[in-house]
Amino acid sequence: MKINIVGAGLAGCEAAYYLAERGVKVTLYDIKPQNFTPAHKNKNLGELVCSNSLKGNDPFSNACGLLKEEMRLLGSFIMEAADKTAIPAGGALAVDRDEFAKYITEKIFSHPNIRFISEEITNIPQSPCIIATGPLTSDKLSAALKQKLGEDLHFYDASAPIVSKDSLDFERCFLGDRYGKGGDDYINCPMDKDEYIRFIEELNMAERAILHDFEKREIFEGCMPVEVMAARGVDTLRFGPFKPVGMQDEKGNKFYAVLQLRKENAEGTAYNLVGCQTNLKFPEQKRVFSLIPALKNAEFLRYGVMHRNTFINSPLHLNADFSLKEDGLCFFAGQITGVEGYVESAASGLLAAIHALQKLSGKSAVIPDNSTICGGLSLHICTESKHFQPMNANFGILKASEVKIRDKKERYRYLAERAIKEIKNFKEKLI
Predict the structure, then answer these.
(1) How confident is the model at residue 222 (pLDDT cuts 50, 70, 90)?
(2) Is a pLDDT exceeding 80 seen at residue 88?
């Protein structure tokens, strides 16, 4: 059995490794390392272009944590890579992004059933194939997809700045997570009312990059630039990523607003400004974020950037097994399908690979029940919608509980236990 996979991001690598481990000869194409998209910098595969956090890791209280557990049970390569390169981040699963990409690349390149070719693919390849070119699909392939499928959709994604730990003013910040969770995983940068108001005023006046493109595009709520949130009202950030609830320093002081910084690497030398994805020009980022007292003399290791995301109108074109309605052996995976997030993208690659293997083996595709997050995402990409938009993992995409449970924590635990049981049943149905 043979298959072509286009795109060596999280979804493509997940699919390639799953199939290769089961005897399928995989030819994996990517423009790296010969070329790069506007947002990619690292020559390795599986590069994380935004945050280094894969979000919550607890399957019983967090939908993305539940999706991770489902993927681990199904033999996820990306979850293996994340667990191997994890760094402390409280209840979240964060990784050392360089080690994470390195681990993926070495595994892919050394696998005897994977042939890697650095080449830009400009047309949909012959089936069987998986297209996993992600949110930064090249212009030529985008044009080919547009011609085959009709008008494609775009939205813009943003990443946050990264600062050096050594440049922070530790007399104006403190360690810990909200409600005392997570030990010293986060650095918290508090502001009083006057400091916060000034920050918001300057943020609203700051000059943005490529403003004409930005304002013509839809922005997915999950990656809303901090300046767009600030423009919605003076308290928007204070009730969002700068929320001070559950935050106090070692003296018990409480604050008007708090910016959290999260580790970017295992050494803890670089920190990400949580919730501060931005489209501001680089000098403006330094000027405005330096108004936060703890960041007064901060050294910016990387500035935030905006980049284009591309996804197709999946309900018109895809089946629940991520295959084209007109070609059951041509699969799509990753954010191009309309799933949103690192883990969700990898999950779609895993599911596309599972379904591809079933069909290549002469079996019918088995779709996971939507009592699982995997099943909920599969249903999302094939359900008719007038305004199809990307979807994160969330408990709302699961089918309703058979029993009424008022307590939120207990309800989530019940849904998670049901999902884990069902994903095990799904796995048993596979070849």
Answers:
(1) low
(2) yes
What angle, rounded to 10 degrees, do the helices at 193-205 and 282-289 form?
A: 170
- In our burial notation (b when 16+ CB lie closer than 10 A, e otherwise), range 325-346 reads eeebbbbbbbbbbbbbbbbbbb
pTM, entire model: 0.79
User: Cβ atoms within 10 A of the Cβ of 229, count?
Assistant: 21
Fold (CATH) for 2-155+311-429: FAD/NAD(P)-binding domain (3.50.50)
Give the burial string for 105-129 (b: 16+ CB within 10 Å, else e).
bebbeebebbebeeeebeebbebbb
Q: How far apart are CA 366 and CA 354, in angstroms?
A: 9
Cα–Cα dist 191/242, whole Å:
9
Closest among 80, 74, 20 to 374, alpha carbons compared: 74
pLDDT in tens, 268-307: 888 999 999 998 999 999 999 999 999 999 999 888 877 6
Structure tokens at 349: 């690659």
Q: Which amino acid is at 245?
A: V
Cis peptide before 293 (omega within 30 of 0): no
What pLDDT, in 10s, does the model give residues 41-72? 678 899 887 789 999 999 999 999 999 999 99
**For residues 158 and 85, which has the higher predicted lDDT (pLDDT)?**
85
Angle at 417 between CA 414 and CA 419, to 5 degrees: 105
- Beta-strand relationship, 327-332 and 129-131: parallel
| Domain boundaries, given as residue ranges, for the chain | 2-155+311-429, 162-304
CATH topology of domain 162-304: Elongation Factor Tu (Ef-tu); domain 3 (2.40.30)
